[in-house]
């Protein structure tokens, strides 16, 4: 694509982050990097490196965070709601949010919900297919709820946000709140799988605490953006 360049960068290397940003001199940095395997190194320290470089260079930072900063007991969550993460991932993402907020007045913290896509399928959809085919152990939670957001809607919303002078927290969740099992039952037939074959799990079956209902109240985004963050059924109906 014309005007697009690629540079490999490990955000755990602070000098490398600064020198790449110095070379590009961006007005806006959209930071999505994350690693489940290195929450402290990539999510917390890596984000600090990106935020510090943005502060040094006067770039506006849009940082992607998650609904998992909430404990799932008081949904739906609007932007002023008090975070209280239950998982190590949620805790690291909250720390990263605070690092960003502490270094930059001109940042946006976007809290997204579970991101799904059709082409290619997202990791949760792959899990649905493997479970339906009996190629995977486990099941899908019937009592864990998220505002599943379609990847193409999220990308459009972020791109719109790049061009807007918005600062602060913004919730970008899809319009329909579903459990993972409900999501799986909608997705399985798209790939020719039988939804009745999907095994159900309950949060009580899981050894670690997980937030039960992290539905996001995205009404601020609805007032701000032209992009609509559609529910799963609406996206699927538009593809028929
Ligand atoms: N997926 C969701 O449902 C969801 C929901 C809410 C929020 N989010 C947030 O959205 C963002 C993207 O999530 P995702 O699911 O798209 O993640 P992903 O598919 O795992 O992608 C993460 C990206 O980060 C890169 N990365 C990992 N370690 C890095 C490092 N040390 N330096 C530079 N880049 C590094 C990876 O590069 P390589 O591929 O080269 O390893 C990959 O491109 C994350 O901030 C996540 O917390 C995701």
What does this structure look like?
The chain has helices at 14-24, 39-57, 88-103, 123-132, 151-162, 180-187, 219-224, 232-238; strands at residues 28-31, 60-66, 107-112, 115-116, 140-141, 145-146, 149-150, 168-172, 178-179, 200-201. The chain is of the alpha/beta class. It has a domain at 14-120 and 147-177 and 215-231: Rossmann fold. Helix 1 packs parallel to helix 2 (39-57) and helix 2 (39-57) runs parallel beside helix 3. The model has no long low-confidence stretch (mean pLDDT 96).
Question: Helices and strands in order, then pairings?
Answer:
Blueprint: H1 14-24, E1 28-31, H2 39-57, E2 60-66, H3 88-103, E3 107-112, E4 115-116, H4 123-132, E5 140-141, E6 145-146, E7 149-150, H5 151-162, E8 168-172, E9 178-179, H6 180-187, E10 200-201, H7 219-224, H8 232-238
Parallel strand pairs: 1-2, 2-3, 3-8, 4-7, 5-10
Antiparallel strand pairs: 6-9
Helix pairs in contact: 1-2, 2-3
The protein binds NADP nicotinamide-adenine-dinucleotide phosphate.
